[in-house]
Amino acid sequence: MTEVLAARVQELLKERGETLAVAESLTGGLLAAAVVDVPGASAVFRGSVTAYATEVKASVLGVDEGLLAVRGAVDPVVARQMAAGVRRLLGATYGLATTGVAGPDPQDGQPVGTVHLAFAGPAGSVALTPELPAEALSQGRASIRQEAVRRVLELLLAELARPVTAGELTD
User: Which pTM was predicted?
Assistant: First the structure.
C-alpha cells in the first residue's frame, strides 16, 4: 500500500514541478525509504532528517526548545514545527514529519501508539493525530511505524489534491 501511495505522491510532485523533504522521529527513516523506493525519486525528493533525539529536533529542525521542554517531543505542534523546519532546511516545496511512540514503553506521558503527523507547504501547515487501528497496535512497533508512514503519505496526497483558494497565505 505504501508503494502505491509513494508512487502517486511522486507522480503529482513531478507534474507540478514541486519537491518534498521529510523529518522523521517515530518512523526512523521508513518514510524516506518509502519515497526513494519508487524509481525516479531523485526528481522530487530533496532529502530527510531523522531526528530521533529531542535535542536534534531543536538544533537541526528548529523546533522550539521551550515547547519541547513543556510538552515533550510527542506533540502535534512539534510535528508541525518539524515539517516546517525540514522544508526550510532542505529547500523543499513540502515538508512531512512524524513523531510519536512506537513502544514498547510510553514516552513523555504518551501511550504506545500515539502518532502525530504533519505537513508543511506554501499554503501553511497541518498536524494530524490519527487513531491507529487495533490491528496495528496489537502487532507492535513495526506495524505502528508502517501505519504512520501510510497515514502521512495519505495526508500529503490529500493536501496535493486540495484546490488552492484565492488569498491563501504562503510561508
Answer: 0.93
Contacts with 101 (C-beta within 8 Å, 6 or more apart), sequence order: 26, 74, 107, 108, 110, 111, 112, 113, 114, 115
CA dist 48 and 71 (Å) reads 24
Per-residue pLDDT tens digits for 43-60: 999 999 999 999 999 999
Enclosing domain of residue 148: 2-161
On whether the CB atoms of residues 62 and 88 are closer than 8 A, the answer is yes
**CATH code at position 74:** 3.90.950.20
> How far is the CA of 104 from the CAs of 35, 54, 110, 142, in angstroms?
26, 18, 12, 11
Mean pLDDT value of segment 117-130: 96
CA distance 98 to 152: 8
Q: In the structure grid, which three cell numbers stand for residue 84, read together?
A: 516546517
